[in-house]
Amino acid sequence: MPKKNDVPASFETSLNELEKIVTRLESGDLPLEEALNEFERGVQLARQGQVKLQQAEQRVQILLSDNDEAPLTPFTPDNE
């Protein structure tokens, strides 16, 4: 399976891929080495998704802030 580390996938694409990985792992039909590779990819996708969710939450908090003096700066995620 080719790695997609060159271009960050959207949150929805990553979530879809993660769901497919879980289904393959739950099937129990994968050889051990392939299952480990799938698990590793799944962990990477889960971590990337968590970062994207945290960034979205921070962005929402900034937008909903009652502090008129809070600086609004362009959203530039580190990993994208």
UniProtKB/TrEMBL annotation:
By its UniProt entry, which Gene3D superfamilies does this protein fall under?
Exonuclease VII, small subunit
Q: Please cite one Gene Ontology biological process associated with this protein.
A: DNA catabolic process
Location within or outside the cell: Cytoplasm
Q: What is its main location?
A: cytoplasm
Top-tier EC class: hydrolase
Going by the UniProt record, its keywords in alphabetical order are: Cytoplasm, Exonuclease, Hydrolase, Nuclease
EC number(s) of the enzyme? Answer: 3.1.11.6
User: Which GO cellular component terms, listed alphabetically, does the Swiss-Prot or TrEMBL entry include?
Assistant: cytosol; exodeoxyribonuclease VII complex
Q: Which reaction does it catalyse?
A: Exonucleolytic cleavage in either 5'- to 3'- or 3'- to 5'-direction to yield nucleoside 5'-phosphates
GO MF annotation, one:
exodeoxyribonuclease VII activity
Would the keyword Isomerase be found if you checked this record's keyword annotation?
Answer: no
Q: What does this protein do?
A: Bidirectionally degrades single-stranded DNA into large acid-insoluble oligonucleotides, which are then degraded further into small acid-soluble oligonucleotides.
Describe the family membership recorded for this protein in Swiss-Prot or TrEMBL.
Belongs to the XseB family.
Self-association state and partner proteins as the record states: Heterooligomer composed of large and small subunits.
Task: Spell out the protein name for this chain.
Answer: Exodeoxyribonuclease 7 small subunit
| Species, as recorded | Phytobacter massiliensis
